[in-house]
Structure formats: C-alpha cells, structure tokens
C-alpha cells in the first residue's frame, strides 16, 4: 500500500486535500441530518455552503484532509493545533457520510491520521477529541484507536440551540 492508505477489509481509504470540485461529495455528509445531529454545525441545505466550507475552512486549515474511499471523499478529518500555552495539543475532529458508518472507515481514518499528525507537528504531545455522549459510534472509534475517555464536561458547548455535554478523549 502507498503511504496514506489503510486497508479496511474490502475498503481502502486514503487522504487528500478537499477541493471545490468535491462540493457534491461534501454535501453527502454535510447535508445529512443523521450526520449533523452529532456535530456543532447545522445541516447544509445547498451546494454553496459546501463550497464555502471548502474555501473558507478546509483549504486554509493546518491539517484537514478528505477521507476518500475509491478516490472519492466520504468524509473529512482534521486536527487543529492549539495556540500559545495549548500548542502541545491538537483537537481531532472527523465527519463521515452515513453510508460509511459501521464499516471501519472512521477507525481506519483516525488510525492513519494520528501518527501522520505527530510526524508533521513535532512539538505536539497530545491529540484529544471531544464527542457528545450520544454519539456512541464515535466514542467506540476513539476507544478502538487507543484514546482514553478522561471526563464528561457538562454543559460545555452551545450549538443548534442547546447546551452540549462532551466526552473528552
């Protein structure tokens, strides 16, 4: 296998930067309320929102990659490096099209991303993730990848008109 790929049974995933031409693929997960229910953004309603996400976030982010299956984006994964006194840690986030849930894609993506980020950002000591406790699948992904649930932070964030508890891994 080439660097940047990991086998998942019959599936093989790879990473690459998101491009504006991927907007329709991005809509497959950003436009799905089943995905958005676990995220801190509203379900996208038009392709222009996907284009704006790619142009305003993904392209300029320090480490954001499309998660691809058979060369097509089915999700994205990012690590945001902390600033100032938090520069020793990164915050992992990932989103995946519903059709790929339960197939090992997210687990493979996290297993591939974490060492890549540590290789690229040498001062990084810790990668953490925050998951709402209702997102059992994502919590299982992180546990399978060796993350430890450290604490539940009560009423930690506001989004979509509600307060969110988050599990810190």
Automatic annotation (TrEMBL):
- Show the InterPro entries listed in the entry: Acyl_CoA_acyltransferase, GNAT_dom
**Which segments constitute the N-acetyltransferase domain?**
13-169
Q: Which GO terms of the molecular function aspect are on file?
A: acyltransferase activity, transferring groups other than amino-acyl groups
Coiled-coil ranges per UniProt = none
Q: Where are the transmembrane segments?
A: none
What protein is this chain from? N-acetyltransferase domain-containing protein
């Amino acid at each position: 296998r080439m660097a940047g790929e990991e086998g998942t049974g019959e599936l093989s995933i790879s990473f690459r930067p998101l491009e504006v031409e991927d907007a329709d693929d991005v809509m497959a997960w950003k436009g799905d309320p089943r995905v958005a229910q676990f995220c801190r953004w509203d379900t996208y309603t038009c392709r222009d929102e996907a284009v704006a996400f790619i142009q305003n976030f993904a392209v300029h982010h320090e480490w954001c990659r499309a998660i691809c299956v058979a060369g097509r984006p089915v999700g994205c994964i990012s690590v945001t490096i902390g600033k100032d006194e938090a520069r020793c840690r990164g915050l992992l986030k990932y989103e995946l099209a519903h059709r790929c849930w339960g197939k090992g894609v997210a687990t493979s993506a996290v297993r591939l991303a974490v060492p890549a980020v540590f290789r690229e950002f040498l001062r990084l000591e810790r990668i953490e993730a925050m998951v709402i406790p209702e997102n059992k699948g994502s919590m299982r992904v992180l546990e399978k990848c060796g993350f430890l649930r450290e604490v539940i932070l009560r009423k930690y964030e506001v989004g979509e008109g509600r307060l969110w508890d988050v599990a810190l891994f």
